[in-house]
């Protein structure tokens, strides 16, 4: 039965990890995958997470099945992060939240549910977007198209083109929006642009699906929820996927959530019942550990403060690396202005490096980046920054 099976293409980003692991050069640097490393080049285990895990280990809880939608303490914690604890939507019972297997799992549960709800719809993702968005919605059975987003000449968002496209979409079209820290470009919308996106979604009857994978990595938990808050105030119904892979440094625990805003508590009950059906035929119910740890941190004032401080530390370190890279490139005599790297937000920068330059970085220096020119700033540290800047300078100068 497998004789005619073709080799599937590798995930372009996760595939880089395999190539990097096989590279024997000591000076190699992996700027490919979106993972936060500390200044020693290690994936941190946050102190708040460690404390919650220690308490959990001591309590030795039994491992029964979770409810299909996950634990109430977790789902409530997620809702408070997204909507703010004083949210009218929450008080009205208008938000349905389920624990999901990372941000990816949340997107997939949302996509599968949407396919049942609106089988004839089309999904629109930003051009460019996270590598997995297209494949994920296609695997749920949707045609996937793009809306204009990044404009290379300005290193920013071509908002006029984006808005014009949204205003031309048919009612019921699903629009996937990066809530903050756009992956891969690092270019985000301004607050007033978000208001315009909300207005376009309202006037055209679009279904917004916000992907929140980096809450806290731009300006902070509250500030980075600006898009969620703008949609919340609009009276529209919308979807949000949350990922805690980065913000809690819990990549392998697969901790995420899907939230859906409905028009009433009664509607929420019906929507939840349908989402539970989607989950039941997929993985039945979520694993216990990661969600329990995140819930413990979010629901303890002390641990929550400690986590926010640690998150601020990650955010500040990435910012320092952005500034450091720009200065180091200047010091290497690079004439081209790289100051846009400081303005981009989150983990990534679209550097403008060509595929050929990225290939040279790998072959000549053992520095791995995505062929689109995306680099992960969170993989830079005080030890490799100078080496990376020299290498980029070499390939930029020709
Ligand atoms: N959405 C975006 C925009 C991402 O960058 C990522 C990256 O990991 C995800 C979703 C998936 O998150 P997770 O790793 O929690 O599945
Ligand atoms: O964009 C990134 O690098 C991260 C990590 O299929 C990632 O979001 C990349 C690819 C993938 C899953 C996670």
Q: Give the N-to-C terminal Cα separation.
A: 50 Å
Q: Portion of residues in helices? A: 40-55%
User: In CATH terms, what is the architecture of the largest domain?
Assistant: 3-Layer(aba) Sandwich
Query: What is the name of the CATH superfamily of the largest domain?
Result: Type I PLP-dependent aspartate aminotransferase-like (Major domain)
- CATH fold field value of the largest domain: Aspartate Aminotransferase, domain 2
Please tell me the total number of domains.
Answer: 2
Q: Identify the CATH class of the largest domain.
A: Alpha Beta
Beta-strand proportion = 5-15%
Organism: Azoarcus indigens
Domain Aminotransferase class I/classII large: 27-392
Cofactor: pyridoxal 5'-phosphate
Subunit structure: Homodimer.
List the helices and strands and how they pair.
Blueprint: H1 14-22, E1 29-30, H2 47-59, H3 72-83, H4 88-91, E2 95-101, H5 102-117, E3 123-127, H6 131-139, E4 144-148, E5 150-151, E6 156-157, H7 159-166, E7 174-178, H8 191-204, E8 207-212, H9 226-232, E9 238-243, E10 255-261, H10 265-280, H11 289-299, H12 301-331, H13 340-343, E11 348-350, H14 355-365, E12 367-368, E13 374-376, H15 385-397
Parallel strand pairs: 1-12, 3-4, 3-7, 7-8, 8-9
Antiparallel strand pairs: 2-10, 5-6, 9-10, 11-13
This protein binds pyridoxal-5'-phosphate (PLP) and (2S)-2-hydroxy-3-(4-hydroxyphenyl)propanoic acid.
